[in-house]
Amino acid sequence: DTTKTSNINDLSGLNFIREIQGSLSIKNNVLLTSLKGLEFVMKVTGDVEIDNNAKLINILAFKPKQPIGKSITVTRNPVLEEVAFHTSNIEINGDFIVKNNPSIKIFGGFQNLEKVKGDLIFHDMVGNVFSGGAAKIHTVKGNVSVQHNPNMTYLHILRLLEYVGGDFIFRNNPKMGGIYINSVKYIGGDLILEDCENDVYFPLPDSLG
């Protein structure tokens, strides 16, 4: 595994790495502002975790050409403005979590992503988020949870969603325009729509767990 922590402000010393046969964890770096230095990493076979980096603004330099192997987690990065993974992933073999990044303005990438085998979670994004990424997802094997995003107006990621293996939770997203979740056919757990201030366009699924 590759783990970078503490007071580093630059990843240029890692620009020789092409492949990580394990997990990539970028965590608790108080000075790091970007992932410049990871431009040439083509493959990560394990998890990718980007957590609690006080000055990290974007992660655009990290753009592996081959699929990320397991879960992807982006959490607790207070000034992070853009999340865009330009990978070839058709599926994620774990969770996909973007949580408690209050400054995010743009969510993009994942142009080919169709399936998440774990949970799909979008929480606590305070900014007016433009979400144009991952618009082809049709299957989430775990829970789908979209909560506490006060200025998010639209979420492309739900547009083609058909199958949710666990709970579907949509809570406290007050500025979301008409919520179009027209394609959902199956929910394996609970369906929770709470504090929705606009219309919800949600067909009756073929099956509710």
Walk me through this protein's architecture.
The structure is a single chain. This protein is an all-beta fold and 209 residues long. Helices cover 0% and strands 33% of the residues. It contains no helices and 22 strands. A 9-stranded parallel sheet has the order 1-3-5-6-9-12-15-17-20, with no helix packed on it. The chain has a 6-stranded parallel sheet with strand order 8-11-14-16-19-22, with no helix packed on it. A 3-stranded parallel sheet has the order 7-10-13, with no helix packed on it. The radius of gyration is 17 Å and the shape is globular. The mean pLDDT is 83.
Distance between the termini: 38 Å
Largest sheet: 9 strands, parallel
Query: What's the β-strand tally?
Result: 22
Whole-number average pLDDT?
Answer: 83
Summarize the helix and strand pattern as letters. Answer: EEEEEEEEEEEEEEEEEEEEEE
Number of helices in the DSSP assignment: 0
Strand content: 25-35%
